[in-house]
Amino acid sequence: MRRVTPDTLSRHLLGLGIALLLLVTLQACPRPSATTAPLAGQPDLRIGLEVDAGRVRIGGQGAVAVVAGGQVATRLTGGSEATLTRDGRDVVLTIGAEARRFERISFVSLAQQSFVHVNGAHYRGVVDVYPGDRGLTVVNELPIEQYLLGVVNAEMGRRSASEQAALEAQAIVARTYALRNRGKFGAEGFDLRSSVADQAYGGIARETAAGRAAVDGTAGMVLTYRGDLAAPFFHSTCGSSTAAADEAFRSVPSRPYLRPVSDRHGDGYYCDISPRFQWSVEWDGETLARILRRTVPAIVGIDGTRVDVVRGVRVHRRGPSGRATELRIEVGSGEIPVFGPDLRAVLETPDGRPLGSTVFETEVGLAAGAVSRLTVRGRGWGHGVGMCQWGAVGRARAGQSATKIVTTYFPGARLERWY
To answer: Where exactly are the structural domains of the chain?
Structure first.
């Protein structure tokens, strides 16, 4: 069925004062698959802004319609806001001293170029709120191209004019990711999360003129492989070469376009402009043992009592990109193998973060037969599969186009207009 955009919906409310019956019907429509054929038009996405939230503040710059059961229940005047909480299976809406209960509720801005805000952050489109298992779920529904406006710079930061091709490459990859993963959280009522668990989405605050130009200039463009949407992974900094899928992930099947791609450029690398191109981490022996006694059973499934004394840590095997794909931790009773997908989580840093990447060398200090100090010197940041974001910036500075960037990082994939 034809989907109605939030702008059209707002005009209906302003001009006719009718209920949001179209929105309710729209939400009930099944979502067609978008992975194997071009679409007739731009689809909407539902983005999970909050899950299991205890309390949410919602308002708007201008007037906002509060819709429940297909009817306008009330309005928020410009600058005012409501507080929402969950009570059992109800959403409790509090405006001033008045509290009302609803099964679910939606918010639509009634003013042109005015947006609904959630906890102070402004968003295009419609905001839906409904009870989850442990709190409120807050969802932003909007057309995909408007969603991308809040993604491109959230992922890439502000970029100069010479780096515009990198923003365009990110727009293409982000669009492909969103379409391929549409319905990922369907059981929870939305498509994607707004965090880096999927891709960063910051709403209006993260939009820029350059980001808008990148989205507009690539509208509808996606990466495909043999007629299907590609699986467009991306990461901050590859460090020298991107990774094969099986070097970083256990559950992602190997694909021809997810293979190592060198980032070498002259005497350096395209991504060596990244602040995370090189890094080092150091553990003293006691801290290392304490961390491993917690991470080895949690991540690898081996009893933590086996980590009685840490006698050595070494890279046992490397993958085609040069990344460590197997680490051996020598303990009193032998060696514990740790494989690529688990390695960054097992070697947790002293401040509680996963290791930056698996492009590294180890340096071990020993005292009385045990590790007294471990130093890991590495390059790059993230899993390493797919597009290197800082590499894309470096390639844009070198004059490469967005098409060249994305087809280099996804060799064999094609760039197509999907709608």
So the answer is: 6-30+55-134, 278-379
